């Protein structure tokens, strides 16, 4: 220790502290060793790495994120809507990011090199990644703005980074008789695969629906019947089970109007996966205007929403990855809305999810804990 202090006598306190942290890390490996590495935003607690972060965690764009963890490597993979990032590389056909900690993300490729041919025209939106029977199933939307007949497809890969092989169309709006059939989300329980889907609209058949898939998750179950879960003012819905309740999370409002976007996340819950889902005031979300607010825009970020499924870290903390828009830099040079990847933790109070202050965090915070 004297040698380290002597060597550090002529450098500033920050460097001295970092050397002291290094010395602790090298010579004390017990669970009692604690160190804060200033400037690197890394906390070391008994061998576990706890990272500090500040939103956004990835820029310029990862809209409508979906995330899965590779059980073999522990790495996370995030996928997003097709977008042109304004960097000269054109439109990425559902980009793929990789991370070890949900904070530091690296672009590693795209789901497709060319669009599937089962539909003429449209973009590849709002993917949903799942680990099914040892493979990676990615459900996706194929749609234009105002498309009269969008649809949902499926691609499968042996590894989360791909290559993904398209399986074709699962169904279209005309097939299923639900307008604006986009935003798929798989929910699995016991031996049943449920697909939740749907988006905004005012028609009588509009809204968020659920339908069972076959055991392989590749097509609709035999004689499957759809059930309406929520009214047509919702989109980007997903289910999360906790302590005997099924929680319905979804987004409302405009997603893609730059700094004027009004996207926000709301929630309801039920004792059954097929509902009925009620908000905290006891109102059914099959009626428009209902739902308990979880996350909304702030002075710094507009339009937070369309989040991934909840990820629980190794300390039992729940985390939500979603997209949000910097109000001071809302678009890339091509004019596309700059929907950056955001991260915040969820706490549960009286059986309901909460995010601190109900808005995207802007200050530096302690991130997820994943044991190496």
UniProtKB/TrEMBL annotation:
Q: Which residues are annotated as site, described as Important for catalytic activity, responsible for pKa modulation of the active site Glu and correct orientation of both the proton donor and substrate?
A: 183
Pathway(s) served: Glycan metabolism; L-arabinan degradation
Q: Identify a single GO molecular function assigned to this protein.
A: hydrolase activity, hydrolyzing O-glycosyl compounds
Report the active site residues: 64 (proton acceptor), 235 (proton donor)
Alphabetically sorted, this entry's keywords are: Glycosidase, Hydrolase
User: An example of a Gene Ontology BP annotation on this entry?
Assistant: carbohydrate metabolic process
Q: Which domain of life is it from?
A: Bacteria
PANTHER family assigned to the protein according to its UniProt record, in alphabetical order = ARABINAN ENDO-1,5-ALPHA-L-ARABINOSIDASE, ARABINAN ENDO-1,5-ALPHA-L-ARABINOSIDASE A-RELATED
Q: Which family does it belong to?
A: Belongs to the glycosyl hydrolase 43 family.
Q: Know the name of this protein?
A: Glycoside hydrolase family 43
């Amino acid at each position: 220790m004297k040698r380290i202090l002597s060597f550090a006598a002529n450098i500033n306190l920050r460097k001295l502290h970092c050397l002291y942290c290094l010395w602790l890390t090298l010579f004390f490996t017990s669970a009692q060793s604690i160190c804060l590495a200033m400037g690197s935003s890394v906390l070391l607690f008994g061998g576990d790495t706890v990272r500090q972060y500040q939103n956004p965690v990835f820029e310029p764009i990862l809209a409508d994120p979906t995330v899965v963890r590779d059980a073999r490597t522990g790495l996370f993979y995030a996928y997003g809507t097709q977008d042109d990032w304004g960097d000269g590389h054109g439109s990425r056909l559902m980009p793929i990011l990789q991370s070890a900690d949900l904070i530091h993300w690296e672009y590693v490729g795209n789901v497709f090199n060319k669009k599937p041919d089962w539909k003429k025209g449209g973009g590849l939106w709002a993917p949903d990644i799942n680990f099914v029977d040892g493979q990676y199933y990615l459900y996706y939307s194929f749609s234009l703005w105002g498309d009269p007949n969008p649809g949902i497809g499926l691609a499968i890969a042996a590894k989360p980074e791909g290559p993904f092989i398209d399986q074709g169309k699962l169904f279209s709006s005309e097939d299923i008789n639900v307008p604006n059939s986009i935003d798929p989300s798989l929910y699995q329980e016991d031996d049943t695969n449920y697909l939740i889907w749907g988006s905004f609209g005012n028609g009588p058949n509009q809204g968020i629906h659920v339908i069972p898939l076959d055991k392989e998750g590749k097509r609709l179950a035999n004689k499957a019947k759809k059930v309406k879960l929520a009214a047509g003012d919702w989109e980007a819905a997903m289910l999360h089970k906790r302590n005997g309740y099924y929680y319905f999370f979804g987004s409302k409002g405009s997603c893609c109007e730059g700094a004027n976007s009004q996207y926000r996340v709301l929630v309801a819950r039920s004792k059954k996966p097929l509902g009925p889902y009620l908000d905290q005031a006891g109102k059914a979300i099959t009626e428009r205007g209902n739902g308990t607010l979880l996350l909304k825009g702030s002075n710094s970020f507009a339009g937070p929403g369309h989040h991934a499924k909840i990820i629980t870290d190794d300390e039992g903390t729940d985390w939500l990855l979603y997209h949000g828009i910097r109000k001071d830099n809302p678009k890339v040079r091509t004019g596309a809305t700059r929907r950056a990847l955001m991260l915040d933790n969820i706490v549960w109070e009286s059986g309901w999810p909460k995010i601190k202050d109900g808005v995207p965090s802007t200050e530096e915070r302690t991130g997820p804990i994943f044991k190496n």
